[in-house]
Amino acid sequence: MMLMRTILIVIVPCLLLACAKQQPANIPTEVPTADAEVKVTEEQFKRLGIELGKPAIRVISGVIKANGMLDVPPQNLVSISAPLGGFVKKTELLQGMRVKKGQTIVELEHPDYIQLQEDYLITKNQLEYLELEYQRQEELSKEKVSAAKDLQMAKSNYHSTRARLMGLKAKLELVNIDPNALANGNMRSTVAIPSPISGYVSQLNINLGMYVSPSATMFRIVDTEHLHAEVQVFEKDLPRLKVGQRVLLQLANEESEREADVYLIGKEITPERTVRVHCHLKREDPQLIPGLFFSARIETDKSTVQALPADAVLLFEGLHFVFVEKQPMVFELVQIEKGATENGFTQVTIPAGDASKQIVTKGAYFLLSILKNGGDDE
């Protein structure tokens, strides 16, 4: 038994050693980290076009990065309802169509419109009679022929009927019926509702024959001539904001940036801990529509900083790095703090021990590729 145990003790380590030797040799390269080094030959250095330099002192604007959405001021967005309920008799609008201010956008009909005009004419005739009666009672009162209460009654009837006539007149004007046109008995069974602004139909909620109540929205018309940008800025950046600062906007479907200015800064923090910043576009574009999302860069005060060419700064795994020359043809990956970028230069904060060394200003991404591939320059 002792002999068997001895044999097993000897065999097991040998088996483990044999298995270890059979493991594959080409283990995947680890993700590059700070302090990783890459060595190149003189031929690679020239072929990759690597250039070295040191941070330069430059004046760069600080930048606040944010997101936002195009919007219109309240006076440029109108919801149109029926002043009095009615049935849709005619409309030629479609969503997206342009309308002009004062243009008829829908015609409504209802028996109440006829009744309203009839009540106006009857009340107007009554007022004429009551006015004459009031004047007659005044004359009789002066001659002390009639009682004072008769004068008071005539006065009350006259003023109450006059008030009723004024109310009916206001209702007629509300539905765009001219009270003066009713003098000859020209009553209308329909009313026309005009557009209060020029713009585009952004919402249409009616069809022919449909009954619409005064509380229902028939149309929404938006005037895109004066779009503005609503930017959501986090509260931590609020102290750096000022009215008049330059803003660069990039819409999701565009490659170029649009320029704007900070016009108003909100005074309320949202539940998402952001503040609304109202910006005016420098070049208005009526082809834009409200609701488009964009990314924004708000330029803050300029400051004198150390900067490198933007190509020298590498973004990797959410962190920023540069390659520092450790020895001739040997470069070390060093993590830095990145600031604003302007005119091709980026503000950088380099660790004190590496600040005086040469830094790769051109070809940094080639070195990173070599490092990730385990030293192979393909």
Features:
alpha+beta, 5 helices, 4-stranded antiparallel β-sheet, 378 residues
What would you note in describing this structure?
The chain is 25% helix and 38% strand. The protein has a 6-stranded antiparallel β-barrel. A 4-stranded antiparallel β-sheet has the order 4-11-9-6, with no helix packed on it. With 378 residues, the chain is α+β, with helices and mostly antiparallel strands. It is elongated and about 125 Å long. The protein is built from 5 helices and 21 strands. Residues 1-31 have low confidence and may be disordered. Helix 3 runs antiparallel to helix 4 (148-174). It has helices at 2-21, 42-47, 111-142, 148-174, 364-372; strands spanning 37-39, 51-53, 56-71, 77-81, 86-90, 98-99, 104-109, 190-194, 199-204, 211-212, 217-222, 228-234, 246-251, 258-269, 274-281, 293-309, 314-316, 319-327, 330-342, 345-349, 359-362. The longest helix is centred in the middle third of the chain and has 32 residues, at 111-142.
Brief sketch in words of this structure:
It is built from five helices and 21 strands.
**Major β-sheet strand ordering:** 3-12-15-14-13-16
Number of DSSP-assigned strands: 21
Count of helix runs: 5
Which class best fits the helix and strand makeup? alpha+beta
**Spatial extent as radius of gyration:** 40 Å
Q: Give the % helix.
A: 10-25%
Overall pLDDT score? 83
How far apart, in Å, are the first and last alpha carbons? Answer: 60 Å
Biggest pleated sheet: 6 strands, antiparallel, barrel
How much of the sequence lies in strands comes to 35-45%
**Which stretches are poorly predicted, pLDDT < 50 over at least 5 residues?**
1-31
Q: What overall geometry do the principal axes of the alpha carbons give?
A: elongated
Q: How are helices and strands ordered from N to C?
A: HEHEEEEEEHHEEEEEEEEEEEEEEH
